[in-house]
Amino acid sequence: GRFWAWEGIGCCGGTCTHVWHYAQAPGRLLPEIERNQREQVDFGMAMDPNGGVGHRMWIDRRAHPAHDGQCGRILGAYREHLMSADASFLKRTWPRIKKAIEYLMRLDGNDDGMIEGAQPNTLDAAWYGKISFLASLYLAALRAGKAMAREMGDTAFAKRCQAVAEHGAKVILELFNGEYFIQIEDPAHKEDIGIGPGCYIDQVFGQSWAHQVHLGRLFDRDKQLQALQALWKYNFVPDVGPFREQFKRGRWYAMAGDAGLLMCTWPRGGQNPNFKKHWQYMYFNECMSGFEWQVASHMIAEGMLKEGLAIGRAIHDRYNAALRNPYNEIECSDHYARAMASYGVFIAISGFAYHGPKGRIGFSPKLTPENFRAAFVTAQGWGTFAQKRESTRQVETLELRYGTLHLASLAFDLPDRARAARVTVQSDEIVVSSTFRQQGQRVEIQLKEPIRLQREDILRVEIALTT
After folding, report:
1. Angle at CA of residue 321, ends 317 and 326, nearest 5°
2. pLDDT of 194-245, one tens digit each?
3. For residues 24 and 72, is the Cβ–Cβ distance under 8 A?
4. pTM of the complete model
5. Contact 230, 158 (CB under 8 A)
6. What whole-number distance in Å separates Cα of residue 444 and Cα of residue 413?
7. Architecture of the structural domain at 353-466
8. Residues forming a β-bridge with 398
9. For the chain, domain boundaries
């Protein structure tokens, strides 16, 4: 069998790529289902001969590719590899994943990291020009391509992905207006919808995805932070009521009295008047939780903890059980799939980093790192992680509650200016031989021999601290 779903209850079938790729929960909690979807559908029956992945797939037909969904499914394939016990999934699917990346590269005619021509995306239209939202996702997909190619021994393709990504990291800065990233519209398509100089919710979405799968910095961090700060300044409203009194088009996912993060604002003006001729323009006035959760996870990953949690609290309050169903975040329909982007916030708060085939696991708690506790899920098991900090030591504990966990290395963040003087690893009170090295705040611990934790096993890591 294969996994198939609507976007929401009875709404928009075909497991839509440009919606479902926001949903981080299934790939982390039910990784086998997502591997099945990548292998049998996205890079199977939904793939055109040219490498395009149909953004919807039915039994008898496929839809055209959507560029954001195409990037998201490539990134999802890398996540599914990370959440695997071995490299067999990647070995089977790599030729088709590579084909999907090459499809995007052909749309980037001069290898500058910018897709050209019509760019269909999740707001149900094709935009034109240079668009940071889609360019950032393309750069993330290239970085994922590089990582997968290297693991598959495809050195030439890894170098090609790297070269285009490095070029794109420079070109995308042309879209920064001093506060946030925009769209430079194609003059030949002034009648078409887009965002132009607007402050758009997904403007640096690619970096948000990159944090989820540990791909590093895609482009200028300071400018990305300014973009997130601009979203907080211009798009977050503690009460959408006054805004919607003036801007009436759009669906009421947030009502008067509700807080939320608006899809797009134009704080500097300059909006193309033709945008309002399109029915999709209504989206820009709305608060849709899946998009909001994506931004919240990105903010938290970047250290904007207060702002990220405030966005999450706004969504929580909108779906307070006294007002609405707290288990039903609505977008185009009930129980909307994009809302499962919320799990990305959990990943960001715990700083969870995992590579199943290589036996690597790491944590970097963003919330109360001095006394942190959270669940974790891996390829073959799940359990509880805890961290406690004192002035002279930091103690990490992994307790496996189900399944098994293969481990070859671990990584943790230390407080600012702290240095690791000594590291002791114990599995059920038996010392495990290891070495360690520190880069900045990150301590990486290499076990001399890999181990496999079983159910109820406890791994304890004590790091002696100096300054």
Report:
1. 75
2. 999 999 999 999 999 999 999 999 999 999 999 999 999 999 999 999 999 9
3. no
4. 0.97
5. no
6. 9
7. Sandwich (2.60)
8. 385, 459
9. 17-350, 353-466
